[in-house]
């Protein structure tokens, strides 16, 4: 029986939260070439779904979030620079989608998050890890390097020095060190990982989705144009546009009336 990328990726929609599970536990949830494109398709679809307000990524089983790119792909897709470009384009599409999507994303990490698995986690907005997990990008052990998008995301998250420490050492960091350098946002006991992650997702989903989207866009603009002196009119107006939304009026009234707001994304 032939298996496809769809067999290796599970999607559970429980609005307002959707969960994407990398489902190859026997391969430590390694991601093959077709899966990168499938993940990008799924993320784009979920970002268009108004009822989905948070997307959680995780890996099946207890061993790994994802051990990274599937080594079985290397002969076919990464044997030389020409083949490598085709492979990297598929990875870049997912990373670009994660970077620009309006919907908040969380990586729920249990076990190994290595190589491409770590890069996927870095590309999401937040990372919650169970104690005992290990994270890193040991590309130098294979004689390869990471792409520009992966490098940009890693440096933005942990800074130049820590990014080089991760890459030059090739180490997989324990959760305590990963938390210290900012590679993860929170570390929990393994038995509490799902509770903590879904509680955070529920809190995020209950807040204004347009505010989340505007904050993510503004963050991207600040990183792309740190001097802020060459913003377009449209970019400069992103924070101000929130005052013209129904959600702002609802949030303001709810605050005055001392009740929970009901945001609708308009």
Provide key terms for this protein:
266 residues, alpha/beta, 2-enoyl-CoA Hydratase, Chain A, domain 1, 2 domains, 6-stranded mixed sheet, 12 helices, 10 strands, 47% helix, 16% strand, globular, Enoyl-CoA_hyd/isom_CS, lyase, EC 4.2.1.17, Enoyl-CoA_hydra_C, enoyl-CoA hydratase
Q: Please provide the ordered H/E string of secondary-structure elements.
A: EEHEEHHEEHEEHHEHEHHHHH
In helices, the fraction of residues equals 40-55%
Read across the widest sheet, the strand sequence of neighbours is 1-2-3-5-7-10
Terminus-to-terminus distance: 46 Å
- CATH evolutionary superfamily of the largest domain: 2-enoyl-CoA Hydratase, Chain A, domain 1
- Report the top-level CATH class of the largest domain: Alpha Beta
CATH topology type of the largest domain? 2-enoyl-CoA Hydratase, Chain A, domain 1
Low-confidence stretches: none
What is the number of E strands? 10
Q: Summarize model confidence as the mean pLDDT.
A: 93
Give the name of the CATH architecture of the largest domain: Alpha-Beta Complex
Shape: globular
Largest sheet, strands/sense/barrel: 6 strands, mixed
Radius of gyration: 19 Å
Q: Structural class of the secondary elements?
A: alpha/beta
Q: Indicate how many domains the architecture comprises.
A: 2
Q: What percentage of the residues does DSSP assign to strands (E)?
A: 15-25%
InterPro entries: ClpP/crotonase-like_dom_sf, Enoyl-CoA_hyd/isom_CS, Enoyl-CoA_hydra/iso, Enoyl-CoA_hydra_C
Keywords: Lyase
Family: Belongs to the enoyl-CoA hydratase/isomerase family.
EC number: 4.2.1.17
